[in-house]
């Protein structure tokens, strides 16, 4: 078990593991509609059994080195998370993502947490390309990709079926040689 501070506000990043099933379910219940606007996590975590199953799948991904799941805690409460939905160390690729309950939004928690895990993936695991796939209408998540110095590569039109609606998905990425410091890329600002 490890804990990483996310800054002076006391927020922390920790692995999110099967024994957190009750806490994850309570977190989803607090932010179910907000989180579920663009991602399927609240639909996958509908009760204690599905919460435990979701966390177990990610524990198995961590054990097989194919994904990771981390929770963001603020004021002692789970308020969001970041993850590597996929990770292929042999190919040097990973897909990062995030979610956050509404009361924790606007504090930079996801950006700080994503910087930590991307830095770990690039520096420790040798990942060469980190993708960020986001619904085109999800402005807050797109803003995180920009703050991380990612480049927008394109749009997969009507690519993802979510709650009966087809969503356009934007693909953003950062390459290892663009990722120079724990604070993020060396570029002076976001790139389109």
% residues in beta strands: 25-35%
Uncertain segments:
184-192
Number of strands: 8
| SSE string | EEHHHEEEHEHEE
Tell me the structural class: alpha+beta
Instruction: Let me know the average pLDDT.
Output: 90
What general form does the structure show? Answer: globular
What strand order characterises the main sheet? 1-2-3-4-5-6-8-7
How far do the termini sit from each other? 37 Å
Structural account:
The protein is an alpha+beta fold. Helix content is 32%, strand content 33%. The protein is built from five helices and eight strands, in the order ββαααβββαβαββ. It has an eight-stranded mixed sheet with strand order 1-2-3-4-5-6-8-7, sandwiched between helices. Helix 1 packs across helix 3. The chain is globular and about 40 Å long. The termini are far apart.
